[in-house]
Amino acid sequence: MSTTPQKNRAARRALAAAAGLATVAALIAATPAAATSHGHGHGGHGGHGHHKPSTVDLQLLSFNDLHGNLEPPSSSATVNEKQADGTVKPILAGGVEYLATSLRTARKGHPYSITAAGGDLVGASPLLSGLFHDEPTIEALNKIDLDVTTVGNHEFDEGAVELARLQNGGCHPTAGCYEKGRKFKGADFPYLAANVTSEKTGKPILKPYTVWKKNGVKVGFIGVTLEGTPNVVTAEGVKGLKFHDEIETVNKYAKELDRQGVKSIVALIHEGGLPASSSYNYDCDSPAAGGGLSGPIVDIAKGISPKVDALVTGHTHNAYVCTIPDPAGQPRLVTSASSFGKLYTDTTLTYDRRTNDIVRTAVDSANHIVRRDQPKAQDLTDLITYWNRLAGPVAGTPQGFISADIDGRSATTSESPLGDVIADAQLAGTAAPEKGGAQVAFMNPGGIRGDLVYKASALEGDGVVTYGEAFTVQPFTNLMNVVDLTGTQLVTALQQQVSGLNEASPKILQVSHNLAYTLDMTKTGAARVVTDSIRLNGAAIDPAKTYRVAMNEFLGGGGDGFAALGQGTNKLVGPSDLELFNAYLAANSTATAPLAPPAANRITIIK
User: Fold this and answer.
1) Which domain of life, per UniProt (predicted)?
2) Any idea where the domains of the chain sit in the sequence?
3) What is the three-class DSSP state of 274?
């Protein structure tokens, strides 16, 4: 990239540091538009010294799983903070206007500051970003001065070609440019995809790594997503791609960077862990180093080469700062900053100029809340205002009415009230013979991205569900599939919720109102499904009979470990899940007779 954007961006950060918080936003807004483009070699403010110290403190700011949440999230909107007396306090957090302020404030006084992300910055986004194929989020990240990110699984929701457009810019191939004379420029920062290769060429589809440089200091960043991405993305989204082992890939490129003389290396890994506490500030290293974390990232961390000095992770939407020893037994940080821009991690890496490596014993890190009681960054407010103006005519259109909150993403039960509504909507929209003749419908829990909230979010009025709110719940606009499955395959699909790929972390399908059964979680594997309890329209499932089953195309491709659902035949492709959801709201609710939350009692769970 050219030197001019680098100089502009460094100058912008220097201005921000000198001015103080009260005038940061004004100075940023006054900087020429070209300054939002940047390459590597910047790194903040500060000048060259004649006598360089032997060590340099590098500031690594990181976050993950933004999912296009430019505005403060309305669901999953808080982080839990453990108090001194042991109680837990939920604190409202998130929104890029506040994230920008937090990061800019944190950078003050740190001449060597790098901002990195752990993937899923786009995809499953609220309407403000999703309606425009996430161009607004990329523009926001440019303004936030993101230096580098790895891809996550959601970066592949619209396929590799669209991901390349987000990196390189250009108008959308079908939607075009959204306003005359305004062309999308793409990401100023590199997306890394070390373990994602083209089936045709065998080469990474994007850069596998990048090297950040300033005043002789060099830090390498390697980016990978979870090897299991094809299991959580539509088949079309990963068509023509191969996803490789995270450990092998990171170790391969760590060796390559080491041969180039880059001894300080950070891995950005879109895979994560499960913390022992829901509080972001819990002690992850109790009772021993890394003792407060479980899940896939633990084994990955233990297998990654000691050449790598820190791991920034994501995917599970959890918050942790843990020390997991590397294969040589040396301490190494593994961090994650929740999701939706609610937290950021501030890590100090002490860099030794004599060895060009990180002094592991001098590493310090903590997660910080992106609080909403701080000033907003005006340039991000302006960006949100611009895109809201374009989205407004669509976003505010009423779709239906509800009598109370209908919890989906924030539900604490395996079967959620909103999951029931969505499954019912899919059955209603595909039951007619000419629309597929569906007899039952399944919805994957991970596809429910929000809640329906009774309180008005704008001027629509309490209880009104707008298109924007419905889109937030169902942002993928997956096409519906209706397929033939035998009774045996249907039962197998239910068993796959709690066995095989899903045994350790069950994925409970949301089911339409006419299906009921019992899960006995005191048992293991497929035996958890009490098969003789399964009833469809009150009748037992006939193993030899053929049933017409509705689901979105993600499940229809065997996603989320549901291989049995991918075996369907006689497929009919219908409208999008969002279209059926909105149609159901319109047909089943009015202002005087709003839709009430279902009881969520279709699945009986024995614990």
Assistant:
1) Bacteria
2) 61-378, 397-605
3) strand
Could you give the CA distance from residue 456 to residue 34 in angstroms, rounded to a whole number? 38
Structure-token match 């669509």, residue found: 394
Q: Tokens at residue 326, please?
A: 């590397």
pLDDT tens track for 74-92 = 878 999 999 999 999 999 9
Phi/psi for 293 (5° steps) reads -140, 140
Q: How many helices (H) and strands (E) does the chain have?
A: 14, 30
- Grade residue 2 by pLDDT with cuts at 50, 70 and 90: very low
Cβ–Cβ < 8 Å for 130, 63: no
- CATH H superfamily, domain 61-378: Metallo-dependent phosphatases (3.60.21.10)
Q: CA-based Rg of the chain, rounded to a whole angstrom? A: 24
Give the 3-state secondary structure of 16-79.
Answer: HHHHCHHHHHHHHHHCCHHHHCCCCCCCCCCCCCCCCCCEEEEEEEEECCCCCCCCCCCCCCEE
DSSP assignment of 202-230 equals -SBSSBSEEEEEETTEEEEEEEEE-TTGG
Reported as a single tens digit per residue, the pLDDT across 127-163 is 999 999 999 999 999 999 999 999 999 999 999 999 9
Instruction: Write the CATH number of the domain with boundaries 397-605.
Output: 3.90.780.10
Q: How far apart are CA 438 and CA 549, in angstroms?
A: 5
Question: In what helix (H) or strand (E) does residue 358 lie, and over which residues does it extend?
Answer: strand 357-358
Residue of 231, 216, 154 whose CA lies nearest to 191: 154
* Kind and range of the H or E run holding 99: helix 96-107
Query: Nearest CA to 29 among 305, 299, 386?
Result: 386
Q: How far apart are CA 9 and CA 506, in angstroms?
A: 46
